[in-house]
């Protein structure tokens, strides 16, 4: 629903705020926004009227990620089935650590994980839902050394040889390096593997880095990415699996972005070889191992249906119920195809729903050989984004990468996107950037 003000609708006891318009944000500078929100925490609390005013302000000045013109991050749009079950889980306020306190959701998580493992190609295994892909990566980097050196649980890292992690040069997700620091492996033991123009690991360089690491450390996880966050590129899993088998490495596949292709008969070939990994990740971490590594790595007693001992958390949200309705995914591929047709010379032909391109303003057209061309071109994306945000019409990300100056990264993922939205995206970039 859209409107120009904020009426409160009461529907069967629920207060519903109707949020206006298609603007993705009402931009304010930090000092101005802090004054508008009046964020002071008062000792005597607030009246109901004041609380409602604050809720209005939160809705008014927050970035709206649900309208189709928000394409700034990898998540966008609203899936109403998931929103509905979120109301349910928040109302029940269940923490998912034992069957005793969360019987329905413990069984539900078990079933959903079994389905995820079957999509990977495993008939059995283990796993747990996590509050995001970064935590899933951390689980893999915790379980992998325990699998090889179970004494680490009792004696700690000091009793082991130095450990090494292998990730993509510059493009590996920062959670890998962060986990290496957090878990005591050390960031200097994160080996950077060269990538090609698309951002995919070069298997030959992985092999060389493993040999180099053998003289300094012992290898543990080798995160292979399926769906890089910028280009949407998929690492070649089969040759990486061959190397991991030969070198005795734990193969972990970061599929937080691209894993959805496993639901598609047409596109799942992008992850050919996924069944050969030891662990994968999205907002869950499925494991091929059937020896209850998660439980043994973290727990001290056996309660077969209790999940609290698998987790590094205690309280844990019920995430397994929010299984995304994938029927709309075909629309995002159609939207991506339309964008690619309309853009002259994208950065590269996309493999996934990431479309990377630049807008060349009139003042730079035909000036490709000018000495300051790249410098001036790099400034176009930031200016266009600033103008769009301050006008509230659209949010789209930009970044440099692999020697390329700033380009736009259009993420065509919202189930609400239409062909008309695709037209709007391109027209809006041209409108706000034509005078540059």
UniProtKB/TrEMBL annotation:
Name of the protein described by the UniProt record: Cysteine sulfinic acid decarboxylase
Pfam families documented for this protein: Pyridoxal_deC (PF00282)
A GO cellular-component term linked to this record: cytoplasm
UniProt record similarity statement: Belongs to the group II decarboxylase family.
Keyword Plastid: no
Gene3D superfamilies in the record: 3.90.1150.170, Type I PLP-dependent aspartate aminotransferase-like (Major domain) (3.40.640.10)
Keyword Lyase tagged: yes
One MF annotation (Gene Ontology) recorded for this entry: pyridoxal phosphate binding
Cofactor(s) of this protein: pyridoxal 5'-phosphate
UniProt subunit comment: Homodimer.
Signal peptide boundaries: none
Keywords: Decarboxylase, Lyase, Pyridoxal phosphate
One GO-annotated biological process of the protein: carboxylic acid metabolic process
Domain of life: Eukaryota
Cited InterPro entries: PyrdxlP-dep_de-COase, PyrdxlP-dep_Trfase, PyrdxlP-dep_Trfase_major
């Amino acid at each position: 629903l859209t409107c120009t003000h904020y009426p409160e609708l009461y529907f069967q006891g629920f207060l519903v705020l109707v949020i206006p318009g298609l603007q993705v944000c009402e931009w304010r500078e930090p000092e101005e926004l802090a004054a508008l929100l009046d964020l002071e925490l008062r000792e005597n609390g607030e009246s109901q009227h004041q609380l409602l005013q604050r809720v209005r302000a939160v809705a008014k000045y927050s970035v709206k990620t649900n309208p189709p013109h928000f394409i700034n991050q990898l998540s966008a749009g609203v899936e109403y089935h998931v929103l509905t079950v979120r109301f349910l889980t928040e109302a029940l306020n269940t923490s998912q650590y034992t069957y005793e306190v969360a019987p329905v959701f413990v069984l539900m998580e078990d079933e959903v994980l079994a389905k995820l493992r079957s999509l990977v190609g495993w008939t059995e295994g283990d796993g747990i839902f996590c509050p995001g892909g970064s935590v899933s990566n951390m689980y893999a980097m915790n379980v992998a050394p325990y699998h090889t050196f179970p004494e680490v649980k009792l004696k700690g890292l000091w009793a082991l040889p130095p450990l090494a992690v292998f990730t993509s040069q510059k493009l590996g997700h920062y959670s890998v390096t962060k986990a290496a620091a957090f878990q005591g492996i050390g960031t200097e033991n994160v080996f950077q593997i060269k990538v090609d123009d698309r951002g995919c690991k070069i298997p030959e360089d992985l092999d060389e880095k493993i040999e180099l690491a053998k003289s300094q450390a012992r290898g543990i996880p080798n995160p292979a990415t399926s769906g890089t966050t910028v280009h949407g590129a998929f690492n070649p899993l089969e040759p990486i699996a061959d190397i991991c088998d030969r070198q005795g490495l734990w193969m972990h596949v970061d599929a937080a972005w691209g894993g959805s292709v496993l639901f598609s008969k047409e596109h799942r070939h992008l992850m050919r070889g996924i069944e050969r990994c030891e662990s994968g990740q999205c907002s869950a971490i499925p494991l091929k191992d059937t020896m209850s590594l998660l439980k043994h790595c973290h727990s001290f007693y056996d309660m077969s249906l209790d999940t609290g001992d698998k987790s590094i958390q205690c309280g844990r949200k019920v995430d397994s119920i929010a299984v995304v309705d994938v029927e709309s995914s075909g629309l995002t591929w159609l939207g991506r195809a339309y964008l690619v047709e309309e853009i002259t010379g994208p950065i590269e032909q996309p493999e996934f729903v990431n479309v990377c391109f630049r807008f060349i303003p009139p003042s730079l057209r035909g000036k490709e050989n000018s000495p300051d061309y790249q410098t001036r071109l790099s400034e176009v994306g930031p200016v266009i984004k600033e103008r769009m945000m301050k006008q509230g019409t659209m949010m789209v990300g930009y970044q440099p990468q692999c020697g390329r100056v700033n380009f736009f990264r259009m993420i065509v993922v919202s189930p609400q996107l239409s062909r008309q939205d695709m037209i709007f995206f391109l027209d809006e970039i041209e409108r706000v950037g034509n005078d540059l």
